Amino acid sequence: MKKKQSKKKTQFKKKKNYPEKTAFANLEKASSTVTTPRRSSTGIPKYVADRMARRIFFTAGIPTILGMSVFVVSYFIVTRNIAEIPPSSTIAISALFFLLGLAGLSFGILSASWDKEPGSFFGIENIPMNIQRAKAAFKPATQNFEDKS
Description:
- Helices cover 62% and strands 0% of the residues.
- It is mostly helical.
- It has a domain at 46-148.
């Protein structure tokens, strides 16, 4: 077993006492020099992000909620002796809803229009253009990686 080492005594160290005027004066000087960061134009505009969020809610949120509710409904049916449901079918139906939600997530992002005015209801015409935008966003990063190799 190791011996416990004694702690150094800090009784002899003096604390620095600053007068109130100088202590808070430095704080005020530091807070007045804070600058606001500039916004970059490379991000997704707010109206596009809101449009994507609405589409994702309907195309991914609803199937995901249904996937979770399959377990509750199946439990209710089995415990009330309404029908005999095998557990494998409950899991399969739930997995189908979760996969539908995953596909809806991709569809919700790719089908959103980047124009100021909203596009069509389904937005299928925006998918090829948004795939090209996604590829273009990753292209400079892969070119830099290839040049260094």
